[in-house]
Structures are given as structure tokens and as C-alpha cells.
Amino acid sequence: MENKIYRVGMADAKVTQSPGILTTIGLGSCVGIVLYDPLTKIAGLVHIMLPYSNKISDNSNKLKFADTGIQILIEEMVKIGANPKRLVSKIAGGAQMFSSKINSDIMNIGERNAIATKEVLNKLGIPIIAEDIGGNYGRTIEFYSEDGRLLVKTIGYGSKYI
Amino acid sequence: MEINKLNEMYLDVLKELGNIGAGNAITALAKMIGKKVDMHVPSVKILDFKEVSDIFGSPDTIIVGIYFDLEGDVKGNILFALDLNSASSLIWNLMGLEVKGEFSELERSALEEIGNIMAGSYVSSLSTLTSLNMKISPPAISIDMAGAILSVPAIKYGEISDKILFIETQFVEGEKLIKGDFFLIPDINSFDLILKTLGVEVDGK
């Protein structure tokens, strides 16, 4: 497989195998969840917007939500040979982009997304081996399936591998 | 109503709303800076979420976003977006301050206030036109990647739909020193109400 970069948009997901690179650009209050099978070097990235798919009037796009998005990502990874029992995860995002002067529940959506993501991964028994969550700034993330590094880039807060 | 079922007539009505609202907002801006500001014909964009972050080219383009919740009879939100050069030009035009590097607290606060005046003019003209009560929340600013800023109104839409609808108006100051985008993002559930008060029959077809 060539060393290809797969870009994941909002409410979107992609899977790849080493040496493919998964990226999502300009992650704000959403959460980017990388799942990785270190043995087969199969990786998946889903960019979720909202915590849970229940109590939502239109939830036909299952990739929008932490619960259903992660589930679908696992299924897609298993299809190309990943073992669900071996999966580990790295997560980033969940920022509060605007100050809380506005008193509405959309303002703490980043935090709620992060909490839901952790709950879902925990329930599925998938360990979170690295995270970069919260703050009030956007992130661009790049996951290298070759060695499992996740690069987190920000405007004004530097870049780092987690 | 579902976004996919919006027909041409509804879209024209929404464009016209954008025209009237943004026209007033831009008049307010022109008064503030004492210069002529032109606006483009508004466009109504219905996008998949994964397309949203590309509105400003690349999702990692740095923009200034000033965000408002829309409250009252009509719910939704308003986002006033500027590129960094335009934001600096605005501050120079209004305050005679040259922005060096990062925006200071004072400059951020000034941009919030400019957004506040424009968004206020926008909704007050729509409120008069429709006789519906429309108010804006205090402004909130973020200077960051376009994708991250646009995720905020998109998430709000995500709760009710798989697509997002923007009424977008672009404007430019004479010599293109300032160009910006004004997005009215009405809650889909408020459409029926807006259209009904304007005498447009909504039959769900």
C-alpha cells in the first residue's frame, strides 16, 4: 500500500493500513478518535460532532455521534483484518472554541463530546493510550499507521506527538 | 421540514432575507468606517458536514469568527467571519491601531463590538420585516482554524439534520482592504415560521 494521506471531514471516517496516514484538519469542539491495531498496523479515524445518537430526531448519519461512530469504525477496521480485542485509541479535540459568555449548551459541547467518547471507549474495553483534549483552540491531527504516532498541531500552542 | 425538501422558491425567500439583513449590517459597517462597502448577492448553501470546513479554502486557514446565538421566535446562530488582514484593516480604520502579531484584548473586544453592531442591524431588519421577535446573544470571538470555528454552528445543526444550511453574504470595502462573510444559520425548525409570516405557503412538498 502506498504512503497515502486520507483526509477525514466532520462526521466522517476513514480506515487505512501501514503506511497510510489519517488526518483531520481544523478539529474544534468535535473529537477525533483514532483506533489502532498495533499488530496488523490497521488504523481508523472518526471525527464525531455529538455525544450520543439517542434522543436525536435525525440520526441517519451514524458517524456524527461518539457511540455509533466508534462502533462503525471498529466494524470497518475488522473488515480489513483488524482484531477488535487488540485495539487501542488516541483522542484529540473537544475544545470550547468560543468564550462562555453565551449561556447555551452548545458552548460546552466539546466537553460533553470528550466525556461521551471516553465512556464509549471504556465500555468497549478499548484503552486510551494518549489524549489531547479541551482548551479553547483548534487542532489538526495526523496519525501515522506505520508506528502509531499522532501529531497534534495548533495555532499558537505549538505541535506535539502524542 | 427537511432541508432536502426546500424548493427553489423557499431558497429565493431565504436569499432575499439574507439580502435585507446583510444590507443593513453592511450599511452599519460603512457608517462605522466612513467608507463605501459593497456586498455580493447572498447565496444559500446546503452542505454535508464534511464539506463545511472547506468554505474558506483549507480548513486550517486562520480566520476571525464572531459568533452569536439567535434567540426569540427564530432560533439559530450568526457567524461573522473575517480573514486576519481584513480584521487588522478594520481595527486600523476604526481605531487607528496597527495590529502587530497577535490581537490584543482591546482589539478582540473591538472586533466583537463591530460584529455586535452588524449582527444587531441584521436581525433587527429581519425582525421588522417578519414581525417576529429576534434577538442576538452577546458576541463571542475566536481566532483560529476555519474548520474549528465552523464546527460550532455545524454541531448545533448536527442535532437536527445531516446537512447544514447557511445564508452567506460576502462583502468588500472599496479597495478590497476589508472582505468578510456573514452567515445566518437559522434553525431548520424556524423555517416554517419565517416563511409563514412572509406569506409563503409551506405545504411540505
From TrEMBL, chain A:
Protein's GO biological process: chemotaxis
Source domain of life: Bacteria
InterPro entries: CheD-like_sf (IPR038592), Chemorcpt_Glu_NH3ase_CheD (IPR005659), Cytotoxic_necrot_fac-like_cat (IPR011324)
The protein's Enzyme Commission number: 3.5.1.44
Catalytic activity: L-glutaminyl-[protein] + H2O = L-glutamyl-[protein] + NH4(+)
GO MF, one example: protein-glutamine glutaminase activity
Enzyme class: hydrolase
One protein family per Pfam: CheD
Keyword list, A-Z: Chemotaxis, Hydrolase, Receptor
Keyword Hydrolase attached: yes
PROSITE patterns the UniProt entry points to: PROKAR_LIPOPROTEIN
PANTHER family for this protein: CHEMORECEPTOR GLUTAMINE DEAMIDASE CHED-RELATED
Family that this chain belongs to: Belongs to the CheD family.
Function, as annotated: Probably deamidates glutamine residues to glutamate on methyl-accepting chemotaxis receptors (MCPs), playing an important role in chemotaxis.
Protein name per its UniProtKB record: Probable chemoreceptor glutamine deamidase CheD
Organism encoding this protein: Thermoanaerobacter kivui
TrEMBL record, chain B:
Enzyme class: hydrolase
CDD domains: CheC_ClassI (cd17909)
Domain of life: Bacteria
InterPro entries referenced in this protein's UniProt entry, alphabetically: CheC (IPR007597), CheC-like_sf (IPR028976), CheZ_family_phosphatases (IPR050992)
Family annotation (Gene3D superfamilies): CheC-like
Molecular function as annotated in GO: hydrolase activity
Keyword annotations: Chemotaxis, Hydrolase
Any one of the GO BP annotations: chemotaxis
This enzyme's EC code(s): 3.-.-.-
Residues of the CheC-like protein domain: 9-46, 107-143
PANTHER family per the UniProt record, alphabetical: PROTEIN PHOSPHATASE CHEZ
Protein name per its UniProtKB record: CheY-P phosphatase CheC
